[in-house]
Automatic annotation (TrEMBL):
Gene3D superfamilies per UniProt: NADH:ubiquinone/plastoquinone oxidoreductase, chain 3
Listed name of the protein: NADH-quinone oxidoreductase subunit
Organism phylogeny: Bacteria, Bacillati, Actinomycetota, Actinomycetes, Actinomycetales
Function: NDH-1 shuttles electrons from NADH, via FMN and iron-sulfur (Fe-S) centers, to quinones in the respiratory chain.
Location(s), subcellular: Cell membrane; Membrane
Length: 119
């Protein structure tokens, strides 16, 4: 058997599942449109002139989102350490502890500053 046959079968199954999901959602989903469904959604604030006339608007959603992205990317760097944990020994453990401390300090500062509060 050709080694690419299994890859082609997997690609065909993925294509059938993707197109089947799209077709099924088009058939089953309700298609009634109303004013609320077609309205733009921007972080919970209605885009009215009254909200934009005051200058500043709350950016808590964006701050929490950026904080999540920053810490999430930093935690991804721990995955290679976790896969090679046994081979790295004490040096790997100490490097990981320093890295975790470097992640924890900004997190605590962000928490103390109130960047994670929604009030």
């Amino acid at each position: 058997m050709n080694p690419y046959v299994s890859l082609l079968i997997m690609a065909a199954v993925a294509l059938v599942v993707a197109l089947g999901g799209l077709a099924l959602s088009a058939i089953v989903s309700p298609n009634k449109r109303n004013k609320i469904k077609t309205q733009n959604y921007e972080c919970g604030i209605d885009p009215t002139p009254a909200n934009t006339d005051h200058g500043r608007f709350p950016v808590a959603f964006y701050l929490v989102g950026m904080t999540f992205i920053i810490f999430d990317v930093e935690v991804v760097f721990l995955y290679p350490w976790a896969t090679a944990f046994h081979r790295l020994g004490f040096f790997g453990l100490s490097a990981a502890l320093v890295f975790i401390a470097l992640i924890t300090v900004p997190y605590l500062l962000e928490w103390r500053r109130g960047g994670l509060d929604w009030d």
